[in-house]
Design goal:
heterodimer; A: alpha+beta; Arc Repressor Mutant, subunit A; Glutaredoxin; 2 domains; 4-stranded mixed β-sheet; B: alpha/beta; Rossmann fold; de novo design (two linked rop proteins); 3 domains; 5-stranded mixed β-sheet; 4-stranded parallel β-sheet; 18 helices
Chain lengths: ~190, ~475
């Protein structure tokens, strides 16, 4: 089953056209984001679509997809919560924030998705905003100085269908939307 | 997205002003010429420069106009004369790097900006883009022209969703404003910019891994030589510069190489953004002349130690640079002085730990990072980081053995300089430096069979307790 419909295939061609002729493989990352934006994670069918577009094998595409943490190869919640626990955040309580995220979502440690399908909690490496530690990303936008209480509040609001205001910029509505933006579309 | 929707208003962030007492060892600003205290962050606090119009009203893109009237060779000479050294960590002279790119091979030439900022503790590039994206784009355009290239790529960190959106908008504005495209500022010289997002891999900040990733492969480093200058992107001559490096370029073109060379120490001229995080009162980015003492940065800018606690350890340039201690408070922050103190300036990312922080736990967390981010290509790195993490876990959890300390030393020696790229060396830095400066803490963990800071572990009364089984047993205990 193809993941990309006719319209998305047209967008895929635009993405590939960003790169020099004969170098279309360079588009593999944005194309993977594109298929991720349709199904909410990168499925076997999604890998196959990308391989077909690039004229390569599914194994080649999977080798690339599995290298990068922002491609989710397993079922993923509506929202992806990335909690940084690297040193600068750990020094000011990130471990408690991570525990609060697991606890409030019900997502098991190291597991894929909470029972209600809403959340995936990912222990993240440094997110490059250490002055605002502990840092949490909701669908890849930053929330600064997040306490365990604030973490619970963010989760509650997401559960109610709200999009909590990030520290800077605008927020995607969910993980699929974030993937769409990452593909360089719909900004 | 017409305006900068930063929610933290400028002025709301304390300590971004250079204080009058800031150390200026060879500061040229006092007498004449343009001010030198703050160069690339001088406009932080001015929301207007976020847009193309605001940036141009402030004199933006005039340096690019100046550059387009110069020959490539003259332009490279100006940057060489400035003494600017790469801000991405290695500190290689930027003008020299530009001169290494051959312009007569008959192949296309590429300029690539490295915006894959992910060294733990580092957050200057992100803020440079979020606040004044056109300063960076102007530097990129000048660099692209200087090496005779028509194609610039910006490799953006994937997790920087918002900063990458800012950049995308700025690039679109610059095209509309005649900065990029077929005729840059009406000069007839063509430059196109392609934004390329990564997808979550620290290693892609390493320049050859970045190129592999940009070409659509796993982000694994390549053996050098050939260097990217000769055989880089798509096998063509390629220049790769860090964002902060490129942000300095318009100012150097505008004010001259000599002006820049007079700021800070002779061998590390200019200013540097120091990203301060951890146990200080006011974490943040502070642009100060190279060679400023750590004491000045901490006490006059970052607000001193948090809660009045005592400084225990700090990294001068992110997690991959050897930790220094309270003894090194008066060390000057420049490439030479930090090297003389036994560490590296790296990205100028200063992570501050105080007396209540456990060094073994800090080291364990950093090694876990390197184990996660090792690309797996080289055995010493792939295996060394993984086993290093296991040994540090068991020491921190109270199950360490006397022989673990020589084991860690031996592990470090078998990793250092034995892999394709510097990731393994970066992982060795915290291990070796913490053993050098804080060996007593390791010994206390082993002797007491627990962490003296958290109390976690079986303790001496429980001498026969065995560590939880399984590969991830201890990391589960430690969280």
């Amino acid at each position: 089953m193809a993941v990309l419909g006719a319209e998305d295939r047209a967008r895929a061609s635009e993405i590939m056209a960003r790169y020099p002729k004969g170098r279309e493989r360079a588009a593999i990352i944005p194309l993977l984001y594109l298929v991720q934006s349709v199904e909410g994670h990168v499925t076997r069918d999604g890998l196959r679509d990308v391989a077909e577009l690039l004229g390569t094998t599914t194994a080649e595409v999977e080798a690339v997809a599995s290298f990068y943490t922002m491609f989710r190869l397993r079922p993923t919640g509506t929202h992806l919560l990335n909690v940084c626990t690297n040193l600068s955040c750990a020094l000011v309580g990130a471990r408690d924030v991570f525990e609060a995220a697991n606890d409030a979502t019900g997502a098991p440690h190291g597991g894929d998705v909470s029972d209600d399908g809403m959340f995936t909690v990912h222990e993240e490496e440094c997110l490059g905003a250490c002055d605002a530690a502990p840092v949490v990303q909701v669908d890849f936008v930053n929330h600064d100085k997040v306490s365990p209480e604030r973490m619970r509040e963010i989760i509650e609001r997401l559960r109610n269908g709200e999009v909590p205001e990030p520290a800077r910029g605008i927020a995607p509505t969910d993980f699929k939307h974030a993937s769409r933006i990452l593909a360089g579309l719909e900004e | 997205m017409g305006e900068n929707p930063r929610n933290d208003r400028p002025g709301g962030r304390g300590g971004l002003q250079a204080s009058p007492g800031a150390e200026q060892r060879r500061d040229a600003s006092a007498s004449d010429g343009p001010p030198s205290k703050k160069i690339i962050t001088a406009n932080w606090g001015n929301d207007e420069v976020f847009s193309l119009d605001g940036y141009r009203a402030d004199g933006g893109y005039e340096a690019l106009r100046t550059a387009l009237d110069m020959t490539s060779a003259d332009l490279i000479d100006v940057v060489k004369a400035s003494g600017l050294r790469g801000r991405g960590g290695a500190g290689f002279p930027t003008g020299v790097k530009w001169s290494f790119v051959p312009q007569d091979t008959g192949k296309p030439t590429y300029a690539v900006a490295n915006f894959d900022e992910s060294e733990p503790g580092t957050f200057s590039n992100r803020e440079l883009i979020e606040r004044e994206p056109h300063q960076f784009l102007e530097g990129l355009a000048i660099a692209t022209y200087a090496i005779g290239s028509h194609d610039a790529y910006v490799y953006c960190r994937g997790e920087f969703l918002w900063p990458d959106m800012v950049l995308r908008q700025a690039i679109a504005e610059a095209y509309e404003g005649g900065i990029f495209g077929e005729s840059v500022l009406g000069s007839g010289y063509e430059i196109n910019v392609i934004q390329h997002r990564g997808a979550g891999a620290y290693i892609c900040g390493e320049e050859t891994a970045l190129l592999s990733s940009l070409e659509g492969y796993r982000g694994q480093p390549r053996l050098r030589p050939p260097f990217p200058a000769v055989e880089g992107l798509f096998g063509c001559p390629t220049l790769i510069n860090n964002v902060e490096t490129l942000c300095n370029v318009p100012h150097i073109v505008r004010n001259g190489g000599e002006w820049f060379a007079k700021i800070g120490p002779e061998k590390s001229p200019g200013t540097k953004i120091f990203s301060v995080s951890g146990k200080v009162e006011r974490p943040g980015n502070y642009e100060l002349p190279m060679g400023t003492a750590l004491r000045t940065l901490l006490e006059e800018h970052a607000g001193g130690m948090r809660d009045g606690k005592r400084l225990k350890a700090w990294t001068p340039g992110g997690s991959s640079t050897p930790m220094l201690t309270e003894e090194h408070l008066d060390v000057h922050l420049d490439f030479e002085s930090i090297a003389a103190a036994g560490s590296l300036l790296g990205t100028g990312a200063i992570i501050v730990m105080d007396e209540s922080d456990c060094i073994v736990e800090a080291t364990r967390r950093l090694i876990a990072f390197y184990a996660h981010e090792s690309c797996g290509k080289c055995t010493p790195c792939r295996e060394g980081t993984w086993w290093g993490a296991r040994v540090l876990e068991r020491i921190e959890a109270g199950y360490g053995r006397q022989e673990d300390l020589p084991l860690l030393e031996d592990l470090g020696q078998n990793m250092l300089f034995r892999a394709f790229c510097a990731l393994a060396d970066g992982a060795v830095s915290p291990i070796q430096s913490s053993l050098k400066h804080f060996r007593d803490e390791y010994e206390a963990h082993i002797a007491e069979r627990r962490c003296p800071f958290t109390g976690r572990g079986p303790g001496v009364a429980n001498e026969t307790a065995e560590a939880p089984a399984g590969d991830r047993g201890l990391s589960e205990v430690l969280g």
